[in-house]
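are you around this afternoon, could really use another pair of eyes. what follows is a protein written twice so to speak, once as letters and once as structure tokens for the fold. i want to understand how the tokens follow from the sequence so walk me through it. anything you notice is useful, everything is just below.
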Amino acid sequence: MDDQNEGSTQLSKDDRVNVGTFMAELSKHVGQKAIITVVSKGHGPESWILKKDGGEWIFQSLEGRKGDLQSRLAFILADDEYMAVVLRSYTDKRDTMGFVIKELRGYRVWNRDGDIEYHQINAQELASAGKADVGMGKKLEPEPALIYCGPDGDRVADKTY
């Protein structure tokens, strides 16, 4: 069963409009393809592929979820009030080893009395979080061809290019 339709949580037209502002923020950082991962307290992690097809954005859930991403984000925020979103954008560039260079961005998104607000995590904080397995308390090897991106052009890159 699709939990987007479970319970009594109702979405207003305004919820979609407010989430649309955040969707526009995500879209401006995508060339042709990206993966968006969403995590919240009451909903497990879920990922969506975002790609351009003939100038139109196509969203596809990796978990086989029905519906569109914008409605899903509005549902999660109406239900949980906050979530974390990670955007992994694929560029058209390659590193010296031939790997496609990816840009990683992280966001904290919350619902404050019906207003959707978000904060982009700075590149250093994102890089530190991405290089640690907090469950195991171990340091992870850096992912090749990855640039951690924060607001205002803030960037931390790995050493493969």
In short: The radius of gyration is 16 Å. Residues 1-11, 13-17 have pLDDT under 50 and may be disordered. The chain has one domain: 3-116. The beta strands are 33-39, 46-53, 56-61, 82-94, 100-112, 115-120, 132-133, 138-139, 146-149, 155-157.
